[in-house]
Amino acid sequence: MESALQFYKLILDSTSEHIVVIDEQGDIQFVNKQWSNFGLHNECTVGQSWKGVNYISECDKAAAMGDEFGAQAAMGIRGLINQTLPSFYFEYPCHSPLEKRWFMMHVTQFELDGDRFFIISHQNITERKQVEEAIANLAMADGLTNIANRRMFDQFLNLEWRRCKRLEKPICLAIIDLDFFKELNDEYGHQKGDECLKLVANLLNGLAHRPGDLAARYGGEEFALVLGDTQLENACTFAQSFLDQLAELDIENINAPTGTKLSASIGIAELMPIDYESEQDLIKRADKLLYKAKTNGRNRIELDRG
């Protein structure tokens, strides 16, 4: 009997899925090696053992902090326990600071000696979701610069606002306007102007390297940089790096009143997401600061912490 149990445990530990077994009260009775390793590497361990931890309570705690996926998981598991659902599964994101990840949660049940137990498996579906995301992003990319368009910006900012609110982290938004871009177009032609927009987009995209970051073409010669889980000082460093790199490109704009090279004005706002504000408040703050940068001489950064 002991060797048979060890044999089955080795099978479960060898699978790529993260598996946990709970009883009708939601208490964890078993986790496989993949589950333990994931918890260890993602700072969600619970002491010496997972056994006895109430899985549903942990989902409820996440839901109370604004995690809609935690609420969805708790509702589905309770549906199986109450026998209102035959099975339950859903897909959810589980991004880390360094990479994007998606999982599929699947819950089924079995009986042993008259007691009911529930198997919860989490399968990594990142590769599939990345392909789906790449296809979807074709409709979310700006046709000229190939970075995110305004539609993608609006959707991303909304999701990042909600994520930072749930985690109680700040979010920064930089709105960038190229100084006297009309003068550049008039002097050198729209083809040259389009080339400049592509170069600027490439510089900004190089700064948006985390899952919580996004560079977008905001409209015309305006761009936006979303920086999730970022404090104002760090956002300012990113913005100054962009201005320095733009200066190094040495793009002529001989008719600009403030100089002979292409420059940019930037407004940066930071907010800690709270219930009575929204991402639109962040946009308004950043836009107001951009206007301040332009009225104070351009080729500069204006910032403010909300």
From TrEMBL:
Domain GGDEF: 169-306
EC identifiers of the protein: 2.7.7.65
Originating organism: Reinekea marina
An example Gene Ontology molecular-function term: diguanylate cyclase activity
Protein name per UniProt: diguanylate cyclase
Enzyme class, UniProt record, top EC level: transferase
InterPro entries per record: Diguanylate_Cyclase, GGDEF_dom, Nucleotide_cyclase, PAS-like_dom_sf, Rev_trsase/Diguanyl_cyclase
Keywords: Nucleotidyltransferase, Transferase
Record Pfam families: GGDEF
Gene3D superfamilies listed in its UniProt record: 3.30.70.270, PAS domain
Keyword Transferase set for record: yes
Reactions this protein catalyses: 2 GTP = 3',3'-c-di-GMP + 2 diphosphate
Cited SUPFAM superfamilies: Nucleotide cyclase (SSF55073), PYP-like sensor domain (PAS domain) (SSF55785)
Superkingdom: Bacteria
